[in-house]
Amino acid sequence: MPEYRTGDAEPEVTETDLAMATTPPPADGKRRAVFVAGSGRSGTSLMSGILKHLGLHVPEPEVVADTTNPKGFGEPQWVVDFHEQLLRRANVGVGDARPDAWFDTGRVGLQEAHRAALSDWLDQQFGTADALVIKDPRLSWFLAMWQVAAVRAGATTATVTMLRPPPEVVGSKNTYYGGRLGDISRLAGWVNVMLCTERATRGSNRSFVRYHDLLTDWTSSVVRVGEELGVEQIALARMRDMREVHEFVDPSLRRVRATWDDLSVPRPLREIAEAAWEQLNLLAEPGEDRPEVHAALDDLRRGYAAMYAEAEALVDSSIVAAGPAYARAQRQARAAAAAREAEQQEAATPKGPAVQRARRAAGRVKRRLQGQ
Question: How far apart are CA 195 and CA 189, in angstroms?
């Protein structure tokens, strides 16, 4: 990630704007927000569920469990919807591989309307419980915004970042997400998300946990998190809570055990991903969150940004050729959305001659747009 990015008529966004440490926590207060961050399919749901069983509150309603996550996601539906709206505004994907995507979401997160909405929602949730756990795979894109909102709500914050070997993350996403993305795009997305999540949380109250450690010995991992982050709910957990967590943690849910041999990716990308995994792994060890590791991660982030820029330059002709098709697809999608909205309004409105004329006019506009 470069130190800054500029553009015509765009506000400058720097790494400082994207860092949680830029906004100091309140001096005191019993409100606490624990953020569970990291790439999707890395054990974030498991960590969120454990913290919930130990006494932290997941704001309701929660995302409903399904076959991809039968034990539940441990994430508030409002947060998912809010993040999806902001990502659409920034034109950024959940696992976006573009280094500049961090500045795109950073600009959205700097907008006061979004910060105020988030702060108001958090203040309402603290009316239910003093300790919240917030988890969503999209959370990493907006950590600085969450820090500001939490401080405005009078809360201290802590971040737990989950670590899982990148081949397993890619394999799990291929298995449960499907779609058009393949090994290369998903591995590049993992590198981008994890390196920039580390940079965003650096200097703040944070802890790193390996997914495999959580499955094999969750008590040791969670006790360490409680000590590093000062989460009193962990230290004060009752035996009943501990039994609930023992029942909740199911090692058999590690259903994907992919290795590098299972992925088809370019060697330079694999080398950066392997090096990033090695350095991030160090952060899960006591006393290893130190400047030497930070410097190595900064070098990797710059190396990844340079590699991505070269890849973009190589396929520039394809990008230019795809431009008109993309613009046409966007126009058609907008026309379809407008048609659906018009149909919903028409269904709720008494029918008459004026309504029929408007409906015919909307149909003509829709057909012209789709024909472009």
Answer: 10
